Amino acid sequence: MFEKGISSQTKRNLAVLAKLKFVRRYFLAGGTACALHLGHRLSFDLDWFSDKPVEPRVIVANLKDLSFFIYPYPLLFPRHDYAGIKLADIKDIACMKLDAISRRGTKRDFIDLYFICKNYRLDYLLELYEQKFAKYNVPVWQAVKSLGYFAQADENDLPEMLQPVDWNHVKHFFETEAFRLAKSWGIG
C-alpha cells in the first residue's frame, strides 16, 4: 500500500476507526482506497461501504464527517487488510469509478480510473463492471459513452497529485478508448 496517498491525520483517523467494532462490517473504497493502492494522488475523504447496514445512531455516536453507504453490489475480489481495516480491491474500485463516471463524472474519478488503466486494460475493467452490475441491468454501453463526456469534470479542480498527470491527456485517452470500444461493439 502507498501510505503517501493519505495525510498523517487520515492515517491517525484510520487507526482510531480500526478499533471501533461496527467498522468491521464496512470496507473502505473510493478515492482514498484508490490512493492507497496506487499512490498517485492525495485523498482525504473516507467512504465506507457495506451490504449489511449498521443502525445510524451507532455511527452518529461514534463519528462525524465520514460517509457510510449501503452497497448492495457484490465485491468481485477479496478485500485487502490495511492497518486493521478492510480495503476494496483495486479492480472493484475501478468498477465503482466507472459507475461514478456514468452518473456524475468528476475529474478525480476520471483521473483515478486513468491510473488504474495503467495496470489493467479498460476492456477487462468493463467486463468486470458488466459482471458486477449484471443483475441490476446496468448497460455497459452507458459507461462507455460516459467516458467521453467531460462537461462536469472540466469544472472541477485537479486533485493534489503525487504523480504528474495532464488533464487533456486523460481526456484524450478516454475519448480514444470510448471510440475504439464503441466501434468494436457496434454501438458507435
TrEMBL record:
The protein's name: Nucleotidyl transferase AbiEii/AbiGii toxin family protein
The species this protein was found in: Candidatus Beckwithbacteria bacterium CG22_combo_CG10-13_8_21_14_all_01_47_9
